[in-house]
Design brief:
Blueprint lengths: L2 E6 L5 H15 L2 E9 L10 H26 L6 E8 L1 H8 L5 E5 L13 H8 L4 E4 L11 E6 L3 H14 L4 E8 L7 H9 L6 E6 L5 H11 L4 E5 L5 H7 L2 H8 L4 E4 L1
Parallel strand pairs: 1-2, 1-4, 2-3, 4-5, 6-7, 6-9, 7-8, 9-10
Antiparallel strand pairs: 5-10
Helix pairs in contact: 3-4, 7-9
C-alpha cells in the first residue's frame, strides 16, 4: 500500500482529510496524489439564468485556485512525495477514475456542510464502485494514528473479509490489534479464522466477542471503540444490499455519522 489518493476541495472537511492522508502516506512511506475536482452542476434549472450560473462557476474556480495555491505551499514543506491532478465533471466519477492506480482513497465519512450535493454520498458511492479501500475520516479529526490501537469489526461477511485483507499492510504497523466479533446470530465464519489469517501475516490480535442480539451492530462497535480507546477501525462497507441499508439504516451509514475515529472500509 504505497499510493494514496486524496480528494482536495475547499470545504470544512479538507483539513481532516489532509492531515490523515499525510499521516497515512508517511506511515507506509508512500506517495500522495491530490485530485482536485471542479464539480459541474448537474442541472441548469437550479439557477435563475445562465448568467447566474456563470458567476457561480467563476467564484468557485477562484476559490479552488486559491485553495490549490495554499495547499501546494504547505505540501512543499511536508516530508512526503506528492503530485497534483486536476479534473472536472461528476465528483464520484472523476475520483473513481483517478483511483485506478491508487491503493487507497481518503475522503470524509460525513460533512456537516456540503458545498455540493455530490459530496454527501461520496464515501458510500466510492466504497461500492471504486474497488479500492477507503479511509473515511470524521470532519474534526486531527490525525490518523496508524501505529496506535486498531479495531477490526468482524461479522463473518464477505465485506468484513475484504476489509480485513485490504488492511493487512496497515494492521502490521499497529501497536495493538483487536478483532471485535459482533454476533447477531448470523455469523457463519468464526473470528478464530480471521485471527489465524492475521497471525500468518505476523499480526497477533486480541479477540473480543460481543453479542448484538438486542443492540444493533453499530451500537456495539461504537461502544467498543470508546471502551477500548481505539485509534481507527477496520470494517466492511455496505455488507448488505444498498437498498436494505438505506431503508433500515445500515451499520455503515451509522458509523459514517457517529464514529469519532478514522474508518478503513472495503466492500
Amino acid at each position: 500500500m504505497k499510493n494514496v489518493l486524496l480528494l482536495v476541495h475547499d470545504d470544512v472537511g479538507q483539513e481532516a482529510r489532509l492531515q490523515c492522508a499525510l499521516d497515512l502516506t508517511r506511515a507506509v512511506q508512500g506517495h500522495l496524489t491530490c485530485v482536485d475536482v471542479e464539480i459541474m452542476p448537474r442541472c441548469m434549472d437550479d439557477y435563475v439564468s445562465s448568467g447566474g450560473l456563470g458567476v457561480l462557476l467563476a467564484e468557485d474556480e477562484v476559490r479552488q485556485v486559491r485553495n490549490c495555491e495554499r495547499l501546494e505551499q504547505r505540501l512543499e514543506h511536508e516530508d512526503v512525495p506528492w503530485n497534483w491532478a486536476d479534473a472536472s465533471g461528476s465528483l464520484e466519477h472523476r475520483v473513481r477514475l483517478a483511483s485506478r492506480l491508487s491503493d487507497i482513497i481518503v475522503v470524509n465519512a460525513r460533512l456537516d456542510q456540503f458545498p455540493h450535493y455530490e459530496m454527501k454520498h461520496l464515501a458510500g458511492e466510492l466504497i461500492v464502485k471504486s474497488g479500492r479501500p477507503l479511509l473515511a475520516v470524521p470532519q474534526k479529526t486531527t490525525q490518523f494514528r496508524v501505529a496506535g490501537h486498531a479495531l477490526v469489526a468482524w461479522d463473518g461477511s464477505p465485506a468484513a473479509e475484504a476489509a480485513l485483507q485490504a488492511a493487512v499492510p496497515l494492521l502490521a504497523l499497529a501497536k495493538d490489534v483487536t478483532l471485535v466479533e459482533v454476533d447477531d446470530g448470523s455469523l457463519d465464519l468464526p473470528v478464530e479464522l480471521a485471527a489465524e489469517y492475521l497471525s500468518r501475516h505476523g499480526i497477533t490480535p486480541i479477540v473480543d466477542r460481543e453479542k448484538a442480539m438486542t443492540d444493533i451492530a453499530s451500537t456495539v462497535l461504537l461502544a467498543q471503540c470508546d471502551i477500548l480507546r481505539a485509534d481507527w477501525l477496520v470494517m466492511g462497507g455496505f455488507g448488505h444490499h444498498r437498498l436494505i441499508e438505506a431503508s433500515f439504516g445500515g451499520v455503515t451509514r451509522r458509523m459514517f455519522h457517529d464514529a469519532k475515529i478514522p474508518l478503513f472500509l472495503a466492500h
